[in-house]
Amino acid sequence: MENVHRGAGVSLWRQIADLLRGEVLSGRWPADTALPSESALSERFGVNRHTLRRALAALAAEGLVRSDQGRGTFVTSERLAYPISRRTRFSEIVSRQARAPGGRLIASRIEPAPVWLADHLELAQGAPLIALETLSVADGVPISTARSWFSAERFPDLVAVYAETGSITRALARHGVEDYVRLWTKVRARPAEGTENEKLALPRGATVLVTESLNVEPDGTPLHLSLTSFAAERMEIVIEAGDI
């Protein structure tokens, strides 16, 4: 039995949690790697699985590990701090935290604007919209998947430019938009649904943070509306005081 002592005045599960916590924080188990199986850890510490699971549950409550049903227990990545402000740019946010941003085009299509989108974008009902489906990553790890809508008449080459650059900011700049700001953002949490688990590489039952946001030019002209699903276990939303 490794470094676990009965009768030491500290419960066995807490001793195991302390040992594993130290190993995770020291880097022995890098982010997104699997811990040894429950049977292997039980044998290592000379305890039953109930005791071991209590230790793992304590680490999960601290956010150090996550349990993926049918796959095992994994070390969690350091969460990405994602500020919501008047100037929210995914690439800038990720780069400031010494991680490599990336954007991937999943799908695109032209569709008529329904009433709710036409109202937000100040377009006529039925006006052609580009519907863009994207995946954003940090160091290759999926962070969010989004659906965004743009005027097809104003931004005719947006899909091609985004596919080339992986950046909505650059795609808008190619169409003469020098800057834009966030007019409003709504945030809610829900279980991942549809293909979100697959796109974001999440286990069943995982939670996503969903934002609905409208970006406009500095003069208030609407540019695009986005519905974005973030992997809640990999990021945290920060509301910047200067924007309250």
From TrEMBL:
BP GO annotations: negative regulation of DNA-templated transcription
Family matches, as InterPro entries: Bact_HTH_transcr_reg, Chorismate_lyase_/UTRA_dom_sf, CP_lyase_PhnF, Tscrpt_reg_HTH_GntR, UTRA, WH-like_DNA-bd_sf, WH_DNA-bd_sf
GO terms, molecular function: DNA binding; DNA-binding transcription factor activity
Record-annotated HTH gntR-type domain positions: 10-78
SMART domains: HTH_GNTR (SM00345), UTRA (SM00866)
Entry-linked CDD domains: WHTH_GntR
Gene3D superfamilies, alphabetized: Chorismate lyase-like (3.40.1410.10), Winged helix-like DNA-binding domain superfamily/Winged helix DNA-binding domain (1.10.10.10)
Swiss-Prot/TrEMBL keywords: DNA-binding, Transcription, Transcription regulation
Keyword Magnesium carried by entry: no
Annotated Pfam families: GntR (PF00392), UTRA (PF07702)
Name assigned to this protein: GntR family transcriptional regulator, phosphonate transport system regulatory protein
